[in-house]
Design goal:
7-stranded mixed beta sheet, homodimer, alpha/beta, 12 strands
């Protein structure tokens, strides 16, 4: 463990299939990407070692750190963090906080991971509220919707900060140059919406972001902008609505196919096409979602994460840890406080320390 | 015009293709449903008569009422109503108000139709804010989302009233017995969400409605409930997101097909299946949306309404006008004020006057 490789903490007890999928996914990541990073599996050591023994993992750069407690999906986030101080989540996050690892991933209780990230890592200077976004496929690429459920009541400056964090993430991780930002509203005119979005509009208009103005629900899949900003109540409703589209279409197409054998045959042929489209709507492809606005790299995955999903989360964590996302967020937010920078998408940063 | 048939006012100047589609749709409705209703076309008389002359409409029960002004899609709703007192919208709505017709339909400026409905017809006793909902297809039937964009800021009692209006509409028009109602939230637990939805939850829980509790964005297409209640900001975002799904899928499937001739051939075969599914997501099938909570029957259609859409709006207007929706709304809201009725889905009403 004394190498200079990037170290990534995996909460081995997080997901619904822990530690099996966490261990299998870590091994996949390390086998496919040699000499890029090391993995620290945190959780019940006996269970983890038992899983490891089922794979040929002896030569891989994996270490295990014991944590005797587990935060479940049913636990109340803040209460669990106080009561279970020796949980895999708390122990793992503290390893990251102490600099013994450069990133953390978990497929566990989303609220608890968010709380632990905020409480243990702390907020980036200038960020009022850390946030979690969601990735949507669109006709033109990926669209990041932020906030996706973390903050149900937002003030205008929160929406502005979401826009900054989303924009930098879209630029640094998705490599979109000068990513366009839209404010979710019920119409395109500046006069539309409630007081919060009207005031957020003004903040965004006067910012160095590439702000395209108000967008509507239809503009997400259309891919009009790369980042759509909204409060977590609206974002969560859209995210969950979107997640239900594939199974709705499958049900409708099955009902259609049941009416004749010819139809059944035709739909059998087209399965591949539909799968390819639905795959784009699949959270696993994106490797979880980052907690934006905390002093570190914390990636949250779905409880049902497969080994492949865990692998993708580890790869994403490695990418975010090396992309300086947080330093860019801090500098852009500082710029907007002390006299805004020119409306340029390139922010000059001091040399890396 | 002296008959006892139901009379329906059609705003002949409303839609993007007015008066052509309004006239053609009216004629279709009357040809397909003889002796059920009469149509009063309101708008620029010369243009309307010119359109009528292109059809064989001489024997149909159509009358024309002249209105010299037109409210356009660009007009500000309230300003237009004040300034254009001789608009087809105002003249037509007043005919309904005066009892010279039993319903009104328009494919015009939605905001202006909503304002005219509220200002000219007035609100039903007990209704604080009239509302417009949206119909979604689901795995189990139609789901009415209310409010779909009319009221961006809502108090708990507004959400409660939307639930009452939606529930009665689902029962009387869609014939769902004891329709289940859900409150849109970011989780199912009663403790979730902002203060407004928490208080609305209590109102709904103690009401005679068939309230199933909080629902999430995914429950709309799943068809968990018949009525989903939310504020107009969230509702509008979901509605517009949903409307964009078919064209997103079309674009993705076309891109998939372009990669090979075989794929192209397969997708050609499946066009019918997809069209059949997308058809369910088509506003035209439902015949516009009603303004709920006003003293009358006012149906709003999309600006791009085809003759078929206009026809369906007329049929819907006839149905709503005979279904006593408003009287049921008034009685249920009155019941909730003066000691709530037992949690029964059947509301006993005084005999029809």
């Amino acid at each position: 463990m004394g190498s200079s490789l990037l170290k990534i903490v995996v909460d081995a007890m997080g997901g619904d299939f822990a530690p099996a999928n966490e261990v299998a996914g870590s091994i996949q990541a390390l086998q496919e990407h040699k000499n890029r990073f090391e993995v620290i599996l945190v959780g019940k050591e006996d269970q983890i070692r038992n899983e490891l023994s089922r794979h040929h993992a002896e030569t891989l750069p994996i270490s295990v750190v014991n944590a005797s407690e587990v935060i479940t999906m049913e636990d109340s986030p803040t209460a669990a963090l106080k009561q279970k101080r020796n949980s895999s989540l708390a122990v793992g996050m503290n390893l990251h906080k102490e600099g013994k690892a450069q990133a953390f991933i978990s497929a566990g209780n989303t609220g608890a991971v968010l709380s632990a990230s905020t409480l243990i890592l702390g907020r980036i200077k200038g960020v009022s509220r850390p946030t979690i976004g969601a990735f949507f496929p669109s006709e033109t690429g990926v669209c990041l919707l932020v906030d996706a459920g973390t903050n149900v009541d937002c003030r205008p400056n929160h929406l502005y900060e979401f826009a900054v964090m989303g924009s930098i993430y879209a630029k640094r991780i998705f490599k979109y140059d000068n990513p366009a930002v839209g404010l979710l509203n019920i119409g395109e005119e500046e006069s539309k919406g409630n007081e919060v979005v009207k005031d957020a509009f003004k903040l965004l208009k006067n910012s160095p972001l590439n702000f395209l103005g108000n967008v509507e629900g239809r503009d997400i899949l259309k891919g009009k902008v790369r980042v759509v900003v909204c409060d977590g109540f609206v974002g969560n409703a859209i995210l969950k609505f979107g997640e239900s589209v594939p199974s709705f279409l499958k049900a409708k197409l099955l009902a259609y196919a049941e009416r004749s054998l010819v139809r059944k045959g035709i739909l059998g042929l087209v399965k591949g096409a539909l799968k390819s489209v639905f795959k784009e709507m699949d959270y696993e492809e994106h490797g979880g979602v980052p907690v934006l606005g905390v002093n570190g790299v914390s990636i949250i995955g779905h409880g049902k994460s497969t080994p492949k999903a865990i692998k993708n989360m580890i790869l994403k964590a490695a990418e975010v840890a090396t992309a300086d996302v947080n330093r860019h967020i801090e500098h852009m937010l500082a710029g907007t406080v002390s006299g805004r920078q020119a409306a340029s998408d390139t922010i000059s940063l001091p040399a890396h320390p």
